[in-house]
Every structure is written in C-alpha cells, then in structure tokens.
What we know:
Layout: H1 2-20, E1 21-24, E2 29-32, E3 37-39, E4 44-46, E5 50-57, E6 61-70, E7 78-83, E8 88-91, E9 102-110, E10 116-126, E11 132-142
Parallel strand pairs: 5-11
Antiparallel strand pairs: 1-2, 2-3, 4-6, 6-9, 7-10, 8-9, 10-11
Amino acid sequence: MKGLFYKLLIVLAIGFSACSLKNKSENGSVVFEDGSVAELKTTLNFNSTEHDFGQVKEGEKVVCKYEVVNTGKVDLLIHEVRVSCGCTTPKFDKKPIRPGRSAAIEVTFDTSRRPGIQHKAVTVLTNTEPSRTVLTFTCEVIPNQ
C-alpha cells in the first residue's frame, strides 16, 4: 500500500511540474506558462585560454582563434564577448553550440600605436557556471624605426 502511495505521489509531482512548463526552446532555455524563462546551464572547455603572439611589428593586425567545445548536455550560448580595449575586436557566431560541438572565438589585435609589451583580456559570457571565462593574449610590439 505504501509503495502505491509513493508511486501516485511521484506521478502527481511530475504532472504538476509538466503543467507549468510551456516549452523547452532550441537555445537551451525553458519558457514557463507565466512567461518566465529559465536558462539551462551547460559546461565548456577551451583548447587554450592564453595566447602569445611573440614579437610583432607595430601596425600589424594579428589574429588568434580560441576554440570552445560544449561539453554539457544543453546548447552552449555565448551571450557576449567583452574586450579590454578598442584595439581588440572579437568575432564569434551567435548561434547556439550543440552538445559535443565546437566553435571559435576569433580575436584581432591592432598593434598600431601600441609599442612595448601588451597584455590583453577577452571576457566570454555564457550559460555556464561560472558564467565568465577570461581569455588572454600577450605580445611585444616592436616600434617602427
């Protein structure tokens, strides 16, 4: 008798939670009947979070690609990529990254008027925990003579 009671309780709990769930979107979030949205969390892995361009001539534009893999079970969403200065430009696809798939974040650094040792940061905001991943790069910009 106890077993039947617990089974009925589980079925009712699942039924009530399913009633409040309107739909699971393709982008890794859940929309409830009241219009509220809950974002599902996933995990990621970068091939590297650091890059060293070495010595570069002033005026060059150097490019680095950071590869990210969605290691979780729901879509990985890259919400935003923030750079530490206007000399750095990020480029990435805003489409969700399916579980097991990878994508690249391309970063271009303009060395114009930036002589000397450079340390720059790129912050990637995603639907992971923690939600921020900091990518860095360095180089030594050799001034024009």
